[in-house]
């Protein structure tokens, strides 16, 4: 699929999700190229319909900048109780609405916003929908102090870790100053088993397996249809 077509699909899914946003909501806004279209649409609704949110929290400085540029005031997660609705993208989503996230390295804040949200909606184009989680490296955010030990441990487990790099070859640092180890596994046959292992590995800050978190996924299909799947 070419880039323009994929952008059209992302935009279609984003527009549908923006229709779920209501006046007075505390809204969680994710990160990524699909969410960028969602924020565009929020801006349009604010301008043309006077959309008035109670509060907005977001998951990256990129989304924050875009929201603020459109006149939204962005709160910190610690300043709210919970979001009414959070809309985010995903890198892969399976039939149970479990997913892989973190392609943009925003997984830690994304998961924290998501678990503190009454409802989570993901917006994706069809290419990201899979039967079983596969086809995308699994991001794991690790503390710099023990990242080499973590890498060796993951290698021993056959998880093929690779540090995520910047264009100049240096290690990418997350918003929190940590590194990302991308696990290049063909597929994740038992997501809950791997999530449990990562949850209990010292030095792992967070990982990109988002299990039992998404309530609804909005899929923009190649043929122009929009499909909504609910948990
Ligand atoms: O860290 C980034 C996030 O998990 C994104 O939501 C995810 O990578 C999807 O991004 P995009 O919409 O650009 O494909």
Automatic annotation (TrEMBL):
<dbReference type="GO" id="GO:0004751">
    <property type="term" value="F:ribose-5-phosphate isomerase activity"/>
</dbReference>
<dbReference type="InterPro" id="IPR004788">
    <property type="entry name" value="Ribose5P_isomerase_type_A"/>
</dbReference>
<comment type="pathway">
    <text>Carbohydrate degradation; pentose phosphate pathway; D-ribose 5-phosphate from D-ribulose 5-phosphate (non-oxidative stage): step 1/1.</text>
</comment>
<protein>
    <recommendedName>
        <fullName>Ribose-5-phosphate isomerase A</fullName>
        <ecNumber>5.3.1.6</ecNumber>
    </recommendedName>
</protein>
<dbReference type="GO" id="GO:0005829">
    <property type="term" value="C:cytosol"/>
</dbReference>
<feature type="binding site">
    <location>
        <position position="128"/>
    </location>
    <ligand>
        <name>substrate</name>
    </ligand>
</feature>
<keyword id="KW-0413">Isomerase</keyword>
<comment type="function">
    <text>Catalyzes the reversible conversion of ribose-5-phosphate to ribulose 5-phosphate.</text>
</comment>
<dbReference type="InterPro" id="IPR020672">
    <property type="entry name" value="Ribose5P_isomerase_typA_subgr"/>
</dbReference>
<feature type="binding site">
    <location>
        <begin position="88"/>
        <end position="91"/>
    </location>
    <ligand>
        <name>substrate</name>
    </ligand>
</feature>
<dbReference type="GO" id="GO:0009052">
    <property type="term" value="P:pentose-phosphate shunt, non-oxidative branch"/>
</dbReference>
<dbReference type="InterPro" id="IPR037171">
    <property type="entry name" value="NagB/RpiA_transferase-like"/>
</dbReference>
<feature type="binding site">
    <location>
        <begin position="31"/>
        <end position="34"/>
    </location>
    <ligand>
        <name>substrate</name>
    </ligand>
</feature>
<dbReference type="Pfam" id="PF06026">
    <property type="entry name" value="Rib_5-P_isom_A"/>
</dbReference>
<comment type="similarity">
    <text>Belongs to the ribose 5-phosphate isomerase family.</text>
</comment>
<comment type="subunit">
    <text>Homodimer.</text>
</comment>
<feature type="active site" description="Proton acceptor">
    <location>
        <position position="110"/>
    </location>
</feature>
<dbReference type="GO" id="GO:0006014">
    <property type="term" value="P:D-ribose metabolic process"/>
</dbReference>
<feature type="binding site">
    <location>
        <begin position="101"/>
        <end position="104"/>
    </location>
    <ligand>
        <name>substrate</name>
    </ligand>
</feature>
């Amino acid at each position: 699929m070419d880039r323009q077509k994929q952008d059209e699909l992302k935009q279609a899914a984003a527009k549908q999700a923006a229709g779920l946003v209501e006046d007075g909501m505390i809204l969680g806004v994710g990160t990524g190229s699909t969410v960028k279209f969602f924020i565009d649409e929020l801006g349009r609704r604010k301008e043309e319909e006077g959309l008035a949110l109670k509060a907005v929290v977001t998951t990256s400085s990129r989304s924050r900048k875009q929201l603020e540029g459109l006149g939204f005031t962005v709160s910190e997660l610690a300043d709210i109780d919970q979001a009414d609705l959070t809309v985010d993208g995903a890198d892969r989503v399976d039939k149970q609405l479990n997913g892989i996230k973190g392609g943009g390295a925003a997984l830690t804040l994304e998961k924290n916003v998501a678990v503190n949200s009454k409802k989570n909606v993901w917006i994706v184009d069809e290419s990201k929908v899979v039967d079983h989680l596969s086809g995308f490296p699994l991001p794991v955010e690790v503390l710099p102090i023990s990242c080499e030990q973590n890498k060796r441990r993951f290698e021993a487990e056959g998880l093929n870790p690779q540090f995520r790099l910047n264009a100049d070859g240096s290690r990418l640092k997350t918003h929190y100053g940590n590194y990302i180890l991308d696990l290049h596994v063909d597929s994740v046959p038992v997501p809950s088993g791997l999530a449990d292992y990562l949850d209990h590995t010292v030095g792992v800050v967070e990982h990109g397996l988002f299990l039992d978190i998404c309530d609804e996924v909005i899929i923009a299909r190649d043929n122009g249809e929009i499909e909504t799947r609910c948990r």
